[in-house]
Amino acid sequence: MGAPRLEVHLGRLHHNARTLVERLGARGVAVTGVTKATLGSPEVAAALVAAGVSALGESRVDGLERLRAAQLGVPLVLLRSPMPSQVERVVAAADVSCNTEPDVLDALAAVARRHGRVHGVLLMVELGDLREGLLPADLAAVARQVVASPHLDLRGIGANLACQSGVVPDVENMAELSALATGLETSFGIRLATVSGGNSANVAWAAGADTLGRVDDLRLGESILLGTDPLDRLPLDGLRTDAFTLVAEVIEAKLKPTQPWGAVGPSAFGTPPRAADRGLAQRAIVALGEQDVDPGDLTPPPGVTVLGASSDHLVLDTGRLVLEPGDEVRFGVGYRALLRAMTSPFVAVHYARTAGAVSRPRAPASG
Ligand SMILES: *Cc1c(COP(=O)(O)O)cnc(C)c1O
Fold first, then answer.
1. Residue nearest ligand 1's atom 7 by CA
2. Is the whole model's pTM more than 0.90, yes or no?
3. If you measure from the C-alpha of residue 51 to the centroid of ligand 1, how many angstroms do you get, rounded to a whole number?
4. What share of the chain is helix, strand, coil (3-state, %, to 5)?
């Protein structure tokens, strides 16, 4: 098998999605599975659908079009506000899109009318994180516009926190979202099908809050894919954090001094910190770099340290481990590393159908 490659353990993803679907389902909350870090991988999406997610969410139209072509049998949601230049593709690929701009809604309605369709709309509300969202005071007017259009269907409202300013979902802001939903229902005499409380940063809130109010949906990416809470990057209870493994190949392995010699200036990617002199150490270079992955977001095998990275070289101190060219080293990935590996044309993706629930020790670096 070639390297670098990203191994995707579909059974572990299924386990994570299933666990969250059951845990949140017990509280009346459905899961929209967010596959955007995998660029809308149909294999990943199928594992999530098999685990019971009620919809699939993507930020980019390209990802949605991949999911549409895979015919997965659940509604597809565009999470990022549509680009005005893409409204045709949005109506074709998405059942529902998240929106905040009246003019874009008009454009979506016009396209939907031309194709004899009704496009679903989730209006995003600003609750303080200051990324996307209508200010609460403007929500009713835009909802009125959507309700008035025969080619738009107001599916509900949503909010997104913890992405721009780090504002944490809590009892107050989630209660505000519920109150806004109830207010719209009273004003317009309608029932909103969806009140989407947020992303993986909402999982802890949903587990602990006394009442979830009107929130009946969460859009979950990181918690399913990596098993972690984006608020502290720690594992969530009962979830697998090893669904993705990045495998890279050794191209040099030598015992070398720990301190550089010669006059030292800035390197290609900034000024390296001065290394302590620890005599000789086992160093290895793997054929992996900034063009493949975010090197700072990798977890090396136990006993191995990442010393630095440039475009195509990742330099390791391998401790007691003696490697040779051709050996493979396996890394865990964080969200940024996953995203870049999936996006890089140099990283192959391999799908493995290993079971999810059985706990296995972390794979060591191996030859
Ligand atoms: C990416 C995204 C999500 C999923 O976020 P995770 O933290 O990966 O769960 C949910 N909603 C919106 C609007 C997003 O852009």
1. 200
2. yes
3. 19
4. 30, 25, 45
